[in-house]
Amino acid sequence: MSSQALGSERVREGLQEILLGPAQLYEVLRARAVRWFWPLLPLLPRPPI
Q: What predicted TM-score, i.e. pTM, was given to this entire model?
């Protein structure tokens, strides 16, 4: 990629979105899972000691 393209704010933002996109998706899905699962914790059997 040319230095002119890398100097473009729009190109840098696009690259950042591409690189960080999967991590942001992971965080959103993890937060949803925690919100769904948290109320069920008291209902789960406890492992034997």
A: 0.43
Q: What type of residue sits at position 24?
A: Q
Q: Which amino acid is at 17?
A: E
Instruction: Provide the token pair at 45.
Output: 């059997």
Q: Give 19-43 pLDDT, tens digit per residue.
A: 878 788 888 888 888 788 777 777 7
Residue 48 CB-half CA count within 13 A: 0
Query: How many Å apart are CA 15 and CA 9, to the nearest integer?
Result: 10
For tokens 């899905």, name the residue: 29
- Integer CA distances (angstroms), 38 to 22, 25, 26, 32, in order: 24, 20, 18, 10
Cβ contact 20:26 at 8 Å: no
